[in-house]
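1st attempt posting a full record on here, be nice pls
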Amino acid sequence: MSIVPTPDPLPLESSPLPSYLDAPDEPFQLKLFTRDGDADPDPQPPPRHQPTRRPTLNWTLGELWRNHICDQRKARRQAERNLKQLEESMCYWTRFTDDPPLRYIDTVTMTDFVNGLWTLAGRKRGSTVKATTVHKHCRTVQSIYDRCGPMHRRTNPQGLGLLADVPLIVRPDLPENVVDKNFTLDEIGSILRSCPQIEAKLPTAAPFSGWWHNVILFDYNTGLRSAVLLQIRFSWLKRTDQGLWLHVPVGTPHIKVHPGRPFFLNRWADAVVEDQRRRVPSGEDLIFPHPYGESWIYEAMRRLLVLSEIPSEKAEDNKFHGLRKALGTELAKINHVAEKMALGHRDRDIDINYYINRSVMVEALQKLPQPV
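the predicted structure (as C-alpha cells):
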C-alpha cells in the first residue's frame, strides 16, 4: 500500500480570492438581470399583499359598513338590490345619529335613530311611515352592529369581538300579518282572459300578441320575481330526464335567491317556453323580450288588473308578486316541502307569514279526521 503525499497548502497571500473581496470597502450591491442579459437599473421588490385595516372602536358604524362589511357582501355576490337596502338604512342611521364612534353608541343613540325613523314620510303622498318600514331599518342596522360583538360559531360566526355585549335596538311591534289578499285561481283565470284586451287597448303594453298571457301563466307556474322574469334567456335552459330546468347564472342582477339555483319548469311553463320560441324574433335570446322599462311593465300590469276586475285592495298590494304568493298557497296544499323548495326562502317563517294563504289551514282543519 502506497501513501500519496498531500501537497503543502498555498500561502494565504497567493490563494485565489473571490473578486467581491478585493474591495471590502465598497458596499455590496445586488444586480438583477433581464432576460436579455442587461442589468435592471432600478430593481423593485415584488408587490406584497396589503392586509385590510382591522376595525376598532374608534370606527363609526358607517365606516364599519363601507370599509369592511360591504366589501365582504359584494365578494359573496349578494344581490345589488339587497345592498341598496342596506345602504339606505345606513344613510338613515347617519342622518339621525350623526354616526358616532362605536365606543360611544348607547341607548340614547338607539332612541334617536328609532325616533328619527318615525318622522319619515310614507310611500303615498301625505301618508306616514309604516311600522314595518321602521322595523326593517332597525333590523338592518342591528345586523351590522351585531358584527361588533364576540364571535360565536353559530349565532355570530363573523363577530369582530370589539364589544363584549351589543345593545339592542328596540324595534316596534309588528301587527300580525294575515295572508288573505293573494290571487285565487279564479282571479288568475280572469287575468289570463283579459290579456288580449290590454294588448288591444294599449298597443305599447306588449311587443307582440300573446306576450302578456304567456308572462302571467309562466310566472304563476314558476314563482319567479318580476326582475328576474324579464331577464331569463333560452340559453339558460337545460333539459334533463326530469324535465326542463332554468339555471340563473351567478352575477345576474336583481336576483335575491341563492346564485346559480335552478328552477324547475313544469309542463305548463315548458309549453310557454316553446310557444315563445315561435313568437320571438329570430336570434333573440330573451324569453320575454320587451322594448320598454320595468316601470312601464308594472303600469301595464296595473291596468291589466283593472280590466280583470280584481278587487282594489288586492290589486294595490299584489302585482307579479301576487302570482308568486298564489303558487306558494297552491303548492302548500299539495306538499309543503315542495313549496319551500320552489320559493327558495331561507327563513322558515317567511312563507307562513307572507305567502301562504290561511285558507290552507282552514281547509286542512275541515278535513281533520275525528274519533269515533
